[in-house]
Amino acid sequence: MKKIFKNIILCFSLLALFSSCEEELDLNNPTALSLEELLQTNNGFELLANGVLDAYQKVPANEFLLVELRTDNSRANSANGNLPNISAYLVDPNNGDVATYYSNNMATIKHANTIISNRFLAPESYQYAVGEAYFMRALCHFNLVRAYQNVPYIDKVLDVASDEALDYPQLPEAEVYEKIIADFKTSIAYLSGVTADKYRPSEGAAICLAAKAYLSQPNPNYTEAELLLASVIENSSSYGYDLLYTDYDASLSAGENNYNQVINFGNVFGNEFVGSYSDADGTPDGSWTNNSGLEKNNEVIFSIAYDYESSDNYVTSDSGLDDQIETDSESFSFAMTLQGGSNGVNLATLDLLEIMTPELEPVRFYGTIDVITYNPFEITTDTFNSKYPTDGEIGDNDWIVLRYADVLLLYAEAILGDSDSTTDTRALDAFNKVRLRAGKDELANLSKADLLNERRLEFVYENQRLYDLIRFGQADAVLQAFSDANSLNYNPDMKYLPFPQREIDNLPNFYTQNSGY
């Protein structure tokens, strides 16, 4: 029983390494300051907060494999080990990605709880670190409850030498969401008035993610979600949030206007286009490359930063706090890059390519699909995504956790509520902003089907599709039909991942495996 979190708890008593003239946090240094010593330094809480973000850099590494790969958007080719099994809904409780995703989220929770447990020691100037800790604890549990459904909610640093884990059983999904929302709301109070940094938790991000949790819980609270999202949308200029969008310029050709929108959409992900375009329709001819100078844009609300170094380190420099966060060899998900996973994991399904076409999606297609590999007529042809254009297995695209297009569509969803459709002008205005940026016609009546389809096209490869289908109550219908058409193995139990077998083994007869595994 004492081994319960052996693999997910990192010792924070050996913590900080100071290198050169910058403050650099290295969790691998065995001669670093103790926690007690760190808390007595002028900026100890800042370093602890950086440690939380450092730990979270590991979380997105395999999220794509467990979330997007189990939808009708993406598939793995047959040359990729057990990954085709994941996309075929054949996931084992002993699967390494299943266990690692769980433990990486729990490790980040542990780091956040270190701050929360010592929050009364935080100087006034570092109260934001406490808010960030509550935010990240909520975010990680949000990841876990959506992936595994019934999970423990860990609200303290557990003593691995005791049986404290027995105090943290799996909770019903609804109870987990109550605690997630409470943590997000607590973080809002701590982060209120703090200068926002897109590489750090912020008040605006906490408000929006609390709203998303309200919509995701088993019994959605549309009213509370609407109020929270409205408070951000109605004050978007003060938050600095907006879509990357260029108004139509009558002095330009239709082709150039369309090309400008293509570029804007790519810029959301920190990508710039190298090439030219056709005057006739704005079709780009060239390729995308990551440009870190574009990554902190007005559409991004919260992202996890990655920078590629010539060594195999990832370093993030968060603006305004004069420090660095370093982790070793962690890309957010090399499987999603153009050459990740031996060129065979980030592949578009033919189902997706039926609706993600140059004709139907004149803007989003070129920022989403690698045109050179595009062939919608042959399943054996690998069509890659271009949202993460790193040339290799590691790279420097940031991982976007939340962006303003999501906020607009969540707001429309909250207003739509339990109705099948709405003509509410607030919902239509929010929805149509995303449509117009994508080069699509406005709608005068918004249905749930319209909203779900728009989210699929806007957020493809961003690990949203599976959770959207579950939230809209469409997972079984959509994924069963997709599975049947492609001879896969979906059944209603497959919406959620198996609870990691090693967690069950660590506490025999304490945790319960999810149905179907």
UniProtKB/TrEMBL annotation:
Residues 381-517 form the RagB/SusD domain. It is found in: Cell outer membrane. GO terms for cellular component: cell outer membrane. The keyword NADP does not apply. Belongs to the SusD family. Residues 1-22 form the signal peptide. Its main location: membrane. It comes from the Bacteria. Residues 46-215 form the SusD-like N-terminal domain. SUPFAM superfamilies: TPR-like. Keywords: Cell outer membrane, Membrane, Signal. This is Membrane protein. The keyword Cytoplasm does not apply.
